[in-house]
Design brief:
The protein is α+β, with helices and mostly antiparallel strands. Helix content is 50%, strand content 15%. It holds the Pfam family Acyl-CoA_dh_1.
Length: 385
């Protein structure tokens, strides 16, 4: 494994401008309302259109599909900057759920599906969700039980999905279903419009973190959708999901590193201004050393994640490294948010404190997109252990 980093790739004038745009958008359109959205448990649909008009939603998608013509590094830069400007991974989960709902559609090249679902989502006119996880299923994608039975020109779908991001607001759900025999070879992806008879949101779920990102349990009861809504070939869904998982895991890794950096910055500002026994906290060696260790870990994770992302975008096979990057970034983030809350003391436990929100939100990062344990299983297998 080689770690390389091309600064010219990350620090171009265009990408610097994109970062400024994301930061300005966060300060103007997100921060004044984030506490309200946290209490309400969702972000308003119009925020998607505002973000799209600003050029943020489709930064990594070709213009012919409704995007801005960039690549995934542009989107990773946007996600970083939103958190560094005071946003949150929960906000990103809600606003960018199209990032897990539409890539399979775009990659399929199906013009009809792209025009009906991907383009409207990238333009902020529709909200998309990805329905994979099921009650009792967890990370076992090959064990999908929701079925899709072919009936003439339609599929009849029955089953349930759990922990679905943007599930209460979605206009469509890219749904993993079983169209074939047991195991990975029998999985397909089908787009299900949420207004279809038989589709219901069973319940909105209350969570520990990501409060502004609505999460739902979905139920499919003889839901009929056209065969034309099939993404790719029948029974090719598992391979499609596995391919897109790498992008999702890198996104979560970058969010973890950005969260760690944001909490570190907040902690440094705090210890410089907070006085105890007549001296600022920053004058205490134990405080300085804790921050020094945190900064070192963040720098290492930052460099490694950027290197992995760069190589992945350039077409290298990176399943091992993306799994490592996600786990390492999450571990660094966990340490950084814990240290920040500790240094803030009592204030760090209060809802009025930003680090308190990051502390809760960070717990999701080691679970979404494949748990830490699943990542370690992938890593160990690819290492031949």
């Amino acid at each position: 494994m080689t770690t390389t980093l091309n600064r010219e790739t990350w620090d171009t004038p265009e990408r610097a401008a994109l970062r400024r745009l994301a930061a300005d958008f966060t300060r103007k359109e997100i921060l004044p309302h984030l506490d309200t959205w946290e209490r309400e448990g969702a972000v308003p649909p119009e925020l998607h259109r505002t973000a799209a008009d600003a050029g943020l939603l489709g930064a990594s998608v070709a213009e012919e599909h409704g995007g801005s013509g960039g690549n995934p590094l542009d989107m990773l830069a946007i996600l970083e900057e939103i958190i560094l400007a005071g946003g949150s991974s929960g906000l990103i989960s809600a606003l960018f759920s199209h990032g897990i709902a539409t890539p399979h559609i775009v990659a399929s090249g199906n013009r009809d599906l792209i025009e009906r679902f991907a383009r409207p989502a990238l333009e902020g006119r529709m909200i998309g969700s990805l329905g994979i996880t099921e009650p009792g299923g967890g990370s076992d994608v090959a064990g999908i039980r929701t079925t899709a039975r072919r009936d003439g020109d339609e599929y009849v779908i029955n089953g349930a999905k759990l922990y679905i991001t943007s599930g209460t607001r979605a206009d469509f759900v890219t749904t993993a279903v079983r169209t074939g025999a047991a195991g990975a070879g029998g999985i397909s992806l089908i787009v299900v419009p949420t207004g279809t008879p038989g589709f219901t949101v069973s319940r909105k779920l209350d969570k520990m973190g990501w409060l502004c990102s609505d999460t739902a349990e979905l139920f499919y009861d003889d839901v009929r959708v056209p065969v034309a809504n099939l993404i790719g070939e029948e029974n090719s869904g598992f391979a499609q999901i596995a391919q897109q998982f790498q992008g999702e895991r890198l996104s979560l890794a970058f969010q973890a590193v950005a969260t760690a950096r944001r909490c570190y910055d907040l902690a440094v500002e705090w210890v410089r201004s907070r006085e105890t026994f007549g001296r600022p906290l920053s004058s205490r060696q134990v405080v300085r050393h804790r921050l020094a260790e945190t900064a070192t870990e963040i720098a290492a994770a930052h460099t490694f994640c950027r290197s992995v992302a760069e190589r992945w975008v350039n077409g290298e096979a990176m399943l091992l490294e993306t799994s490592m990057a996600k786990n390492f970034a999450v571990r660094v983030c966990d340490h950084a948010v814990m240290e920040s809350v500790q240094l803030f003391g009592g204030l760090g436990c209060m809802r009025e404190s930003e680090v308190e929100r990051h502390f809760r939100d960070a717990r999701v990062l080691g679970i979404g997109g494949g748990t830490t344990e699943i990542m370690n299983e992938i890593i160990s297998k690819l290492l031949g252990l």
